[in-house]
Amino acid sequence: MRLAITVLAAAVLLSACQNASPPAGGMPMPVERTAPGTPAAIQLAANIDAYKALVAQQIMAANGAYTFSGRLPPMLPAIVVLDLSVGPDGELKNVHVHRSRDSEASAAALAAVRRVPALFPPAGHLMRRHAKTFDFSETFLFNEQYRFQLRTLSGPQ
User: Fold this and answer.
1) Cα separation of the two ends of the chain
2) Are 134 and 125 in contact, with CB atoms under 8 Å apart?
3) Per residue in 113-154, pLDDT tens?
4) DSSP state, residue 155
5) Which residues make Cβ contacts (< 8 Å) with residue 54, sequence separation at least 6?
6) In angstroms, rounded to a whole number, what is the distance separating the alpha carbons of residues 117 and 96?
7) Which one of 8, 19, 70, 85 is CB 3.0 to 4.6 Å from 133, fit for a cystine?
8) Is 156 exposed, middle or buried (0-12, 13-18, 19+ CB in 10 A)?
9) What φ, ψ does residue 92 adopt, rounded to 5°?
10) Taking 60 as the threshold, does the pLDDT of residue 7 lie above it?
11) What are the tens digits of pLDDT across the range 23-38?
């Protein structure tokens, strides 16, 4: 409980000190903090959209061979929506297919999330009071070669 309060207090203080404007496209910037004794900065997202962007970046980084960049094709052969549940420390607690019409794409999307080698960013400061997990969705957009982009990062098309 103390850790959650400390993380929340740090997030509030850091977000109050942030004076950078959001990048073009309206995507909020994440807030970084370095805890004493931690080798690297731990990123705390300022809001849900920024959190989803951090998670999407991790998924894309862990799946370079399975992704594509650039404009989306006019017809997407598969779209998969996954529901993710993350613990306060960033541990993936659950992932399941929320919507899909393609079992091969569903399996590829689930595998992509499970390929992420590290914890996701801490989510405790974004969780509702008494919640055990932070729950959100991510949409995987597949091209003809079954490579994907994530909706959170794809931007306007």
Assistant:
1) 43
2) no
3) 999 999 999 999 999 999 999 999 999 999 999 999 999 999
4) -
5) 30, 43, 45, 120, 121
6) 18
7) 85
8) exposed
9) -70, 115
10) no
11) 444 444 443 433 433 3
- H/E run at residue 142: strand 134-142
Residues β-bridged to residue 137: 83
The region of weakest confidence among 18-22, 46-50, 96-100, 129-133 is 18-22
Nearest to 60 by CA among 157, 144, 150: 150
> Among all chains, which residue has been given the structure tokens 């992704």?
67
**Per the structure block, which two tokens stand in for 104?**
């091969």
CA 121 to chain centre: 8
C-alpha distances (whole Å) from 1 to each of 4, 36, 37, 88, 134 are 5, 19, 20, 11, 16
CB 27 within 8 A of CB 20: no
